[in-house]
Amino acid sequence: LFRLTSEQEPYIAAKVAQETRKLTSLKQDAGKAPTTAQGRAIGAQEDFVAELTSLRDELAMIAPMADASWM
Predict the structure, then answer these.
(1) What is the pLDDT of residues 31-68, one digit of tens each?
(2) Count of C-beta atoms within a 10 Å radius of residue 58
């Protein structure tokens, strides 16, 4: 069982922010006409950011439900 603590929350938020900045950088570097490789890298990073964001949101939703006695 995983419990999101107030100490862990900033790490998850920081990781989402870091990967979002990386995505922004990839898009800026690619410009209006990205190469095939750049398009793939952007797509992969978009997927990763979406997964991290979903994980963060799900953890935030279920963390309050965790019973401390299970730990």
Answers:
(1) 999 999 999 999 999 999 999 999 888 888 877 776 55
(2) 11
State the Cα–Cα distance between residues 12 and 20, nearest whole angstrom: 12
Alpha helices in 1-71 (DSSP H): 9-30, 36-62
Rounded Cα–Cα distance for residues 55 and 50 (Å): 9
Residue 15: name the closest of 62, 53, 47 by CA. Answer: 53
pLDDT digits (tens, 9 = 90+) for 5-21: 656 677 888 999 999 99
Assess contact for 69 and 3: CB atoms under 8 A: no
